[in-house]
Amino acid sequence: MSNKFFRSALSFACACSMVWSSAAFAEDAEDVEAYVEYREKVMKNIGSQSGAIGDILKNKLPYNDHILVHAKGLQAASRLVMPAFKKKAMKEGGDAKAEIWQKWDKYVVAARKLEVASDKLVAAAEKGDMKAVGAAMREVGGSCGNCHKPFRMPKDRK
Prior knowledge:
By secondary structure, the chain is an all-alpha fold. The protein has helices at 2-58, 64-84, 99-102, 104-127, 130-151. The protein has a single domain, classed as Cytochrome c/b562 (Four Helix Bundle (Hemerythrin (Met), subunit A), Up-down Bundle). The longest helix has 57 residues, at 2-58.
């Protein structure tokens, strides 16, 4: 009887362990998805802010006074890029390459270049100097490309 009890208890413990580990795995999968989704939103914000500035400049829209608002939004978001990638979280079909975490120091340098470029953009926008804003936007774009080339999957991979 005690042998039967032991087998039942062991079976119950194994079943509970499998359920708990499955729940933990599901929680980890959701956790990864949440991190990736957050990062994607941060990056889309940067793209939206820089895209709005680009539209104003390229199309000579009468919104030069909006450029500073977009520049400050881009600047604030630039401070979120590096911390948003601290946790290694990747999803199937995602844009992040494993090189981000394998070459973390190089990634940090690349992310910091966006911060510096966005600071220059804000300074130019505060002065209202559209020529300097254009130059700063080229630097922002260059910092994006210098990070995306080594650390983001190519867009045409799909």
